Amino acid sequence: MRKMWIVIKREYAQVVKKKSFLIGIILTPLFLIAITALPAFLATKKSSSTEHIAIIDLDQQGIGEKFKESLVRYKLDDNETPAYQVTDIHELDPADTTKITELRKTLDSLILDGQLKSYLVIYGGVEQNDSAFQVAKSFSFRTSSRFERRLSNIVSGIRLKKMNIGVSTDSVLNVTRGINLKQQAPGGKERDFMTMYLSGIVFVMIIFMTAIGYGQILMRSVIEEKNSRIIEVLVSSISPFQLMAGKVVGLGLASLTQVAIWFLIGGVIYAFRASLDISADISGVIFNPIFIIYFLLFLVLGYLMYSTLFALIGSIVNSDKEAQNFIFPIIISLMLPLVLAMYIVQEPDSTLAVVLSLIPFFTPTMMILRINFIGVEVFNFSNPIIFEATLGVILTALTTLAVIWITGRIFRIGILMYGKRPTLPELLKWTRY
Amino acid sequence: MQEYLRLDDICKTYDRTAAVDRLTLSVPKGSIYGIIGPNGAGKTTTIRMIMDIIAPDSGTIMIDGEKVTSDFRNRVGYLPEERGLYKKMTLAEVITYLAEIKGCGRAEVAGEIDGWLRKMSLAEYKGGKVEELSKGMQQKLQFITTLIHKPDLIILDELFSGLDPLNIELIKGILLEEKRKGTTILFSTHVMEQAEKLCDYICLINRGQKVLDGRLSDIKAKFGTNSIQVDIDGDGTFARDIPGVDNLTEFNNYIELKLAPGADNQAILKEIASRVLVRRFELMEPSLYDIFIEVTRIDPKELKGD
């Protein structure tokens, strides 16, 4: 045990001392934020300058003018500067196609010059044929949906007027406006689809990156010891199993250090959230002790299971390049939950989701996604997700033990075999020696 | 003579070829013992079995009268055939790590490092990384890591490979010093000329089997003086045809003649002197190489391949 401790210390120090460890601590959260929060952030970001737009109104009933008025409500960040400025409204006869073509050419060139952001073409009889389109170099989802909403309201008004029932447009819009359906967990905590989805992905990514990242460090370190033949000196001092265990545990502690620092950073950010203007409420996830325990269990089990597999690969190959073929299935089985995340989030209780999340190689990532999305408030086995998660922990732990046993058998022989890569029957034979 | 290490009827077969075949040998305490044979003779396999890195198919290995235990690992220093160290660690870190893993205390090692580095003229690189050292320096560093924990038994596989003549002398000196302290040293090599100068005992092996073993001086005496070296001016190959000459080996500036049993060396000298100018004529002890060839009846070309 003392010798294993020495191996643990070396492996830990070798990783933590490196600059890449520090870079990983800083870059990984940034990367996570970039792939999860950034698109959402950008989508809701207000544009920074007034957009100039033009309107070609072929309906000639004042829709263009009404549209212009309706846009006044949209302001930029300062709440004063208008977000849109309608520069021209061209009311044209739809039959005068030459003029229309000419005008569009002019407006097109203005757009290409950047003097105009976009222009709208509203067809005649728009209230019947629903026809209008927007021309622009690039489209903002938000602007387009605003324009669509405004035009729809205006056209609804026209339709109402034509029906002649004496009800004002405003009152109809008031009557038909939608409601905002919010989500709550049993117990009353507010839940929001996007936050749940994103936070789930973040936790899956942490498990994914820990297993892949540290697994590969472990694999390379085994290959290095094998290639430099220092492995012979090591196994003449310590048993191969102790060596392997020392490496797995040492790197595991390094990865836990990293995750602990992330949690610390997350905690600090959360504590100061008021001054940072973070709208997403993640308290229901982060500060749920049951969730945290499951997360840590799956993080550790996932790491142990996958890093041991990486050690197995390292022990039977001669180079990083040779290892690539073997890594592929590991990465796929860790990636699967990310690929299926959207489906699982929509149907977290479906049979497929339950079955997949109970396959040990998928359990760490899939189960955490499900727990996060379904939400756990009380620890009670009558709650199916608690039962399934606990079953997942047990199955994964048993599989991990099996993986460790098999790897231990193969590792002690593989590390001393150079040259030809062993075949599967040979590997099976090694486990029986 | 007290026996330190004993191998009894050791066998190891890989894919139907016997790497080591019923090998028995006895290494006296405090001796320098050489396992000598051509490449592929089974030297590395034998050493790995002694080191408990691989298990023999049959036979027993005893150290100091006991079966090898994991505790034994701490008392042995092992230099594998192919050398290598952690490239990214500093010299001090590598030495400390490999000593600690042998059960040494950190403080205990710290006191020894400087002396060893000085002895190997590596002191100035102490804080540098292993990868900054030349191949030869890395070899010397690895030699330090083999001895730093003061082992009772030192096992060196292909001791001389990759060492330049200066370093060979340096390391020989250190090994003789260790021997005076009572350490038992076992090494393997296929370079017989070097082994001859260092060993007290040898075991010649070929194709996994022991050919001959015992005290080097006894073996030499047993094989007697049956070869002569002659420095001559001109071509001496004619000497092959002189009666009583079994074999002739040409070297750069002399020839070596192996004589048939009972041949009269003075008659041969006269015969040569009548044909060419003889500058030196010396009755030789048989070299290990000759003994090996004689005992195995191996084609010398097979050995030259090394």
Architecture overview:
The complex is a heterodimer of chains A (433) and B (306). Chain A is an alpha/beta fold and 433 residues long. Helices cover 68% and strands 7% of the residues of chain A. Chain A is built from 18 helices and 6 strands. In chain A, strand 5 and strand 6 (190-191) form a beta hairpin. In chain A, helix 2 (19-44) packs across helix 10. Chain A is elongated, with a radius of gyration of 30 Å. By secondary structure, chain B is α/β, with parallel strands linked by helices. Chain B has 2 domains: 3-221, Rossmann fold, CATH 3.40.50; 225-284, Alpha-Beta Plaits (2-Layer Sandwich), CATH 3.30.70. Chain B is built from 10 helices and 14 strands. Chain B has helices at 43-50, 91-100, 106-119, 135-147, 165-180, 192-198, 216-223, 265-273, 288-296, 300-304; strands at residues 3-14, 17-28, 32-36, 58-63, 66-67, 76-79, 153-156, 184-189, 201-206, 209-215, 227-232, 245-250, 255-259, 278-284. In chain B, a hairpin with a 2-residue loop joins strand 9 (201-206) and strand 10. In chain B, helix 2 crosses helix 3 and helix 2 runs parallel beside helix 4. The radius of gyration of chain B is 22 Å and the shape is globular. Chain B starts with a strand and ends with a helix. Chains A and B meet through helix 1 and helix 9 of A and helix 2 of B.
Main traits of this protein?
heterodimer; A: alpha/beta; four-stranded mixed β-sheet; 6 strands; elongated; B: 306 residues; alpha/beta; Rossmann fold; Alpha-Beta Plaits; 2 domains; six-stranded mixed β-sheet; four-stranded antiparallel β-sheet; 29% strand
Kindly report the average pLDDT value of chain A.
Answer: 84
The helix count of chain A comes to: 18
* Termini separation of chain A: 24 Å
The computed structural class of chain B is alpha/beta
Q: Which strands sit side by side, in order, in the main sheet of chain A?
A: 2-1-3-4
Helix content estimate of chain B: 25-40%
